[in-house]
Amino acid sequence: MNKLPGVCLVVSGPGFLHALGGMANATINCWPLIVIGGSSDRNQETMGAFQEFPQVEAGRLYNKLSVRPSSVEVIPAVIEKAVRTSIYGRPGSCYIDIPGDFVNLQVNKSSVKYVECCLPPPISMAEHSAVSKAASILALSKQPLLIIGKGAAYSHAENNIRKLVDLCGLPFLPTPMAKGVVPDNHPNCVAAARSMALQHADVIILFGARLNWILHFGLPPRFRQDVKVIQIDVCAEELGNNVKPAAILLGDINAVTKQLLEEFSKRSFKYPSNSEWWKRLRVKIKNNEERSKGLALQKSLPMNYYTVFHHIREMIPKNCILVSEGANTMDIGRTMLPNCYPRQRLDAGTFGTMGVGLGFAIAAAMVAKDRAPGKQVVCIEGDSAFGFSGMEVETICRYNLPILIIIVNNNGIYTGLDANSWKEMLKLGNPATCVPPVSLLPNSHYEEIMSAFGGKGYFVKTPEELRNALKASVTDKQTPSLINVMIDPQSERKKQEFPWLTRSNL
Ligand code: ADP
Ligand code: MG
């Protein structure tokens, strides 16, 4: 997330096809990526060449740019354009196709068109009148709410957003991957009263978050019908999606936040900390935190999700990079595990996709090795989510990466079966027809995959065993480890207050 694209090389045909998911994931999350794919020799195209596939055409749907250089001479110019396109405006993925016959072509050096690398992305600011309009709307608000999205994290706006929160005394709510832009333990964080904050806010300022499914499209019943939305985004086409904004601030979040700070300083605006809104939010936060605490401290075995996360929270390093995927594992993990630093949490993202966690963990650990040696990556997976790319454990061990994988194992997807119920059901006949399709094999020893490749594996069933395994893995963080935590297969999320709050979203 340093505003340079990631680069991925893939082979032709199936290699390219496997990367399409990654390109789509990058573009949908607004992350810069360049994929360079080999493809069949040009003179064999349409003849059924080895791994022939219409790659440029297929890449078009998932990329900001999908292109084959017309000759070897123009490759530098095409690379420059791809880098620029991936990071300018709304970031996204770009695909460059290199036919096999290019590899052995001879070119005259003097005919190669060298292009210097592009300038860093331009930083645009909002119209002055829009900034002043936004400030006036906010000054009249009785129940304001600031929503921080992952665009704010990407824009490195943490210092200015935090200043704004402190200066104006506003309640804020991070979206899942914006956690840590302002630390979750900041007194103005209302994540524990999320539903209430969204449902009753009369003015919302969006710092780089789309009003998509993650934010219930900005519509009732999650939001007030008359909510006034102040939208900050670098992408003009995003402004006004689903809800007509009361003010639009087109520009880079960090730069626009600075503009807002200046405007509010001029007006000496401070939202009163003793307002009715703050009182209601605080009561709700306290109640919700107590409910989670009650569940976390339950002594019964097998453990529930809240107990597991309670011990993980106490024992993992505060500055670790957290990767989180799974259904309940991700949803409950988001509420139970605080983030204190920006750009340290990766999850299923805008796509809500599973199977990306181990790849994210490997990429994060590789980057951290260079830039923040000693930083540990803690990757918390549901058992089903782990299954999508579990063999990446070999990659983790091959590179000896400081990654701790914790599998919160409920023998299934959403819920599973305990070993006895599984056996009973099998007596009825074929597992394909007798056991629920969401259940996975009970008591699977995923930790043995880690020990198979030389890392440390732990199978734990009690809080004490969990704490011992966590302690050992955090102390010896250089050795990859996997803790397989058996929980109650029927453990669920806290009961939601509203029936429409059953999806894995905010
Ligand atoms: P979240 O998942 O956190 O809700 P989204 O991915 O929906 O966030 O939204 C991120 C938004 O941030 C996108 O609309 C994107 O255009 C915007 N964005 C990305 N980088 C910047 C930036 N530097 N300045 C302003 N907006 C940005
Ligand atoms: Mg599971």
SSE order and pairing:
Layout: E1 6-10, H1 14-28, E2 33-39, H2 55-60, E3 65-67, H3 75-87, E4 93-99, H4 128-139, E5 144-148, H5 150-154, H6 158-168, E6 172-174, H7 194-200, E7 203-207, E8 228-233, E9 247-250, H8 253-267, H9 276-296, H10 305-315, E10 321-325, H11 328-336, E11 345-347, H12 357-371, E12 377-382, H13 383-388, H14 392-398, E13 403-409, E14 412-413, E15 415-416, H15 419-427, H16 431-434, H17 447-452, E16 456-460, H18 463-475, E17 481-486
Helix pairs in contact: 4-8, 6-8, 9-10, 10-11, 10-18
The chain binds adenosine-5'-diphosphate and magnesium ion.
Organism: Lepidothrix coronata (blue-crowned manakin)
Pfam families: TPP_enzyme_C, TPP_enzyme_M, TPP_enzyme_N
Domain Thiamine pyrophosphate enzyme TPP-binding: 329-485
Unreliable stretches (pLDDT < 50, length at least 5) are 500-506
The figure for the number of domains is 3
What's the CATH architecture name of the largest domain?
3-Layer(aba) Sandwich
Question: Widest sheet: strand order?
Answer: 11-10-12-13-17-16
What would the principal axes of the Cα set say about the shape? globular
The CATH superfamily of the largest domain is known as Thiamin diphosphate (ThDP)-binding fold, Pyr/PP domains
The main sheet comes to: 6 strands, parallel
**Broad CATH class of the largest domain:** Alpha Beta
What oligomeric state do the depicted chains represent? Answer: single chain
- What compounds are bound to the protein? adenosine-5'-diphosphate, magnesium ion
Fill in the CATH topology of the largest domain: Rossmann fold
Domain Thiamine pyrophosphate enzyme central: 131-260
Pfam family, one: TPP_enzyme_C
Catalytic activity: 2-hydroxyoctadecanoyl-CoA = heptadecanal + formyl-CoA; an (R)-2-hydroxy-long-chain-fatty acyl-CoA = a long-chain fatty aldehyde + formyl-CoA; a 2-hydroxy-3-methyl fatty acyl-CoA = a 2-methyl-branched fatty aldehyde + formyl-CoA
Enzyme class: lyase
